[in-house]
Amino acid sequence: MTPFFNCELFYVDSPHLYQLYDGFEKLRKSGVVNYTITEDSKRTGNYRKPLLKVIVDKKYTIIYDTLDGFNWLDRAEVDNLVYFRNNISADFYFKRSYKEIIQNYAPDGCRIYPLGFNYQLKPEGKFPSSLKQRIKGILQNAPFSSEVFRKDQFYSQFFEHYPVPNKEIKILFLARLWSSHEVEGNSLKEERYKINSGRIACVRACQKEFKDRFSGGLKNTEYTREIAEDLIVPTTITNKKSYLKALKSHDICIATTGLFDSIGWKFGEYVAASRAVVSEPLMYEVPGKFSEGKNYLSFSDSDQLIQHIYSLLDNREHLRQMMLNNFHYYNNFLRPDSLILNTLLKVKSLTQ
Q: Strand pairing of 92-95 and 60-65?
């Protein structure tokens, strides 16, 4: 079978992009895509900025952006948008953290679309050996490697589950806190204070209200030991293997906003596992019909969180339907091969 698309991937060392690489590899195995890998020499070592350039059929340039928020520079949002307009060169730009305002700053000739949820997995396929060594060095030397560059990675199928409620409906929320000591500037410190306070409030409220029906707490870090030691859960619970097992045995999962107002990786994991989701408001858009009430319930404080959880506990049909909706959304929009194929089909439809 002749591939529908021939792609050149300008490889960047970033686990934020593993989901994309996995999608390209799955499409290659199915015969839909043929791709080659070119190391992006201009980006060597720049693992903090996860942008993947892809040239399709030697004609069209796509950039896939999995950044948290508008974060090309460590500056204000408007400065980032101006930077985007003046420094990005592509025919198509698919952004994970997408807001309509970015259209006002579109570079000449560039069409911009939401990319979708992001979550970290182990991609199928093989890395070139030279890149493996550098990734190994990054894992050892990055100051946040224990969290972002996880060693316990799993293929996409380990996240997937069927939309069938368990006999006993339980609630899950495992989170981490962001240290305010690691950033400078009042706005960045305030952002982390807000995130941390919200996560702590969620855990405390659910522990008090749902007792044994709730599984949750905070990852053990030095900063968490400073401010919320009583909420720390053992690493035997927070390691990825245990987490994925817990994810499938809990039907209602809680999500909170990440850095730069991003949609956290856990949200993508919840959808992949066909869970019902109660989340802080989503500040960015994703492709497809993913909406409040249908795919998730939105809360703004711990009281509303508890209220929404009870609404799902008391209405098993609503719970089941939300899980089913997320199952369908995952397979059509978020599964790595579907996510990549949708972008390539959009390019094809707009360039024929």
A: parallel
pTM over 0.85: yes
Residues 293, 318: Cα–Cα separation, whole Å:
9
C-alpha 49/C-alpha 29 separation (Å) is 28
Helix, strand and coil content of the chain, in percent to the nearest 5, comes to 45, 15, 35
Nearest to 26 by CA among 163, 155, 159: 155
Per-residue pLDDT of the chain (352 residues; tens, 9 = 90+): 799 999 999 998 788 999 999 999 999 999 999 999 998 766 543 445 899 999 999 999 999 999 999 999 988 899 999 999 999 999 999 999 999 999 999 999 999 999 999 999 999 987 554 445 454 544 444 333 333 334 578 999 999 999 999 999 999 999 999 999 888 889 899 999 999 999 999 999 999 999 999 999 999 999 999 999 999 999 888 899 999 999 999 999 999 999 999 999 999 999 999 999 999 999 999 999 999 999 999 999 999 999 999 999 999 999 999 999 999 999 999 999 999 999 999 999 999 8
Torsion of CA 270, 273, 276, 281, to 10 degrees: 20
